[in-house]
Amino acid sequence: MDVLINRYAKVISYDYAYAFMRMALKDVRLYLGMAKVRSKFEQEQRDRLIDNVNRLMTEIDSEHQKALVRVREARSLVDDLQAIEREMRLSLPTSIRNMQDIGNLIKGDRG
């Protein structure tokens, strides 16, 4: 459970960082596009900066997708484990399931 909490905490922090970085990079790209250039050299510099911003945006999009895929993989693993646990529990004889339920109630766990 702690592993999932840590993983989701990282994904949430990635989402916030992603949102703020993407918004800032869009602003930078907008301001660069509006900049008045006076020479061919300044035009080339501006174009190079815009290309760098676009590359950074592509990289953070890629990292964001990787983080989301890792969470989906972890979530599907948890779902699979829960399904196996349910199947195992249902395959037990009723008397053993009842004993487990009583034990869980005594401990305060769910049945």
Could you characterize the architecture of this molecule?
By secondary structure, this protein is an all-alpha fold. The chain has one domain (2-107). 89% of the residues lie in helices and 0% in strands. The chain contains 3 helices and no strands. It has helices spanning 2-34, 40-91, 94-107. Helix 1 (2-34) runs antiparallel to helix 2 (40-91). The longest helix has 52 residues, at 40-91. It is rod-shaped and about 85 Å long. The model has no long low-confidence stretch (mean pLDDT 84).
Which terms summarize this structure?
mainly alpha, 89% helix, 111 residues
Secondary structure tally: strands:
0
**Helical content class:** over 70%
Give the helices and strands as they follow along the chain: HHH
Shape: rod-shaped
The count of helical stretches stands at: 3
Provide the residue-averaged pLDDT. Answer: 84
Distance between the termini: 18 Å
What is the count of distinct domains? Answer: 1
Outline the biggest β-sheet: none
Derived from helix and strand composition plus strand pairing, the structural class reads mainly alpha
Regions with pLDDT < 50 over 5+ consecutive residues? Answer: none
Strand fraction: under 5%
Question: Any idea what the radius of gyration is?
Answer: 26 Å
